[in-house]
Amino acid sequence: MWSKVYPWLLAFRLKTLTAALVPVMVATSLCLALDEFHAYWISFYALGSAICIQIATNLLNDAIDFKKGADSETRLGPKRVTQGGLLSERQVFTLGLLFLILAILLALPLVWRGGLPIVGLG
């Protein structure tokens, strides 16, 4: 089972998820410190959407770079799953689109609460 899960975890680039986590946690902490925070569900949806955006970006980047030939054997850094043959370009691209759709769905309550400016930020 691990051999089936590992390539996906590698493709998600878990180390980059702090780029999604930190801004939401800082904003939540600031609101709590200013005693302006009354709806915890906002942080939940913002964090979920941000994480999904980051994963989608990582997956789509992997698939598109492979298709363009940008990732080769001489590439430095962590292994890319499509270039390494662990997953197909289609698999990675499809899951990237699914995570993008999930990010949009998780952001809908935020748009409902914050209005159209949230769409612009997204």
Structure description:
- With 122 residues, the chain is mostly helical.
- The protein has one domain (2-121).
- The chain has helices spanning 2-12, 18-33, 40-68, 89-114, 117-121.
- It is elongated, with a radius of gyration of 17 Å.
- The termini are far apart.
Summarize the structure.
The chain is 71% helix and 0% strand. With 122 residues, it is mainly alpha-helical. α3 (40-68) runs antiparallel to α4.
SSE topology sketch:
Blueprint: H1 2-12, H2 18-33, H3 40-68, H4 89-114, H5 117-121
Number of helices: 5
Indicate the proportion of strand residues. Answer: under 5%
End-to-end Cα distance? 35 Å
Poorly predicted tracts of residues: none
Major sheet characteristics? none
Radius of gyration using CA atoms only = 17 Å
Q: What share of residues is helical?
A: over 70%
- Overall shape: it is elongated
